[in-house]
Amino acid sequence: MRALVLHGPGEFRVEAEWPDPAPPAGWRRVRVRYAGICGSDLPRFLSTGSYRHPMILGHEFTGVVEGPAGAGQVAAGTPVAVLPLIPCGACDGCRIAPFHCGRYQFPGSRNDGGFAEYCAVPEANLLALPAGVDPRFGALVEPLAVALHAVRRADWRPGGAALVFGCGGIGLLVGMWLRAMGARRVVMADVRDASLRVAAQAGFCEALDLTRERPPAAAFDAVFEAAGANAALTGALEAVRRRGTVVQIGRSVRETTLPLACVEAFMRKEIDLRGCWGYDLREDRERLRQALADPGFRLAPLVTHEIALEEAPSMIRRIASGQEYSCKVLIRL
Superfamily for 145-275? Predict the structure, then answer.
């Protein structure tokens, strides 16, 4: 099969003849159709590497099931999205929640992933796509699940006001879930004109250009930091109301420090600062299927690029260097 293979930090290329995966019992082979490039893929390709080498990255992908059905009876030929987190089911972390597993497997970081024509996945991690859904949107299911979990972490209630820092894929999907879950006001914020344009195309009528204006202080019930930037976290602590909630989703590649005034605000306003990681396979399957079929989830504007596998290495380098803006790049296989 063709595959984009990471041989080490900075060393990756498309291999024309790479061994097809051989699924063990309970797993299925998926013929990948589309795979999304995640921001977390960039450092793995270019600087940190992965957990082993060679490795096929790619954890946001969709395709068609092949081979005989297992216990879950997902028929061959079914279009599916993949929810890549594979918990062990036996550790202390799993007893809290599957996404807290200390020994999890994960296509695209610990196992070979979706930047290839084929990938092996447990049948339990397949989500059948609703009829009539654009097959590209299956590659957005994993970030959709992450965004839904973030909103759940805020203990969100209808009628609230929310601010989202970062109009990348995760931030925009958080905003869409907030709309679907009854927010009276959703404000998106970013420093990039291109990101703010995508937010407008996705139906967000309130979008702040942070290079020109600051969010109002103490005005929001919940603030979601989806930018992975120090300034976004400090801004979130300023913008959230007293006894409001800040959910940290974005991952920073730099040290994060807080000014004394923000620490003081955190204490005096009794802000609830919550981390967010992963998603819940047990609870969210049907909600994800509904979102894919819901016209209120305007997913098409998020897909800013659709490229062939052979174009991926140069695209990865251009995005990482800032030469190319993207919200979501889909690799077509």
Answer: NAD(P)-binding Rossmann-like Domain (3.40.50.720)
The residues pairing with 36 across neighbouring beta strands, listed in sequence order, are: 60, 330
d(CA 114, CA 29): 11
Tell the residue number behind the tokens 């290329």, with chain if given: 13
Which ranges in the chain are annotated with CATH 3.40.50.720?
Answer: 145-275
Alpha carbon 251 to chain centroid, angstroms: 11
Q: Which residues have C-beta within 8 Å of that of residue 291, sequence separation ≥ 6?
A: 144, 148, 176, 177, 180, 297
Mark 99-126 as b/e (b = at least 16 C-beta within 10 Å).
bebeebebbbbbbbbbbbbbbbbbbbbb
The residue ranking higher by pLDDT, 67 or 24, is 24
Residue 73, judged by CB atoms within 10 A of its CB (0-12, 13-18, 19+), counts as exposed
What predicted TM-score, i.e. pTM, was given to this entire model?
Answer: 0.96
pLDDT digits (tens, 9 = 90+) for 115-162: 999 999 999 999 999 999 999 999 999 999 999 999 999 999 999 999
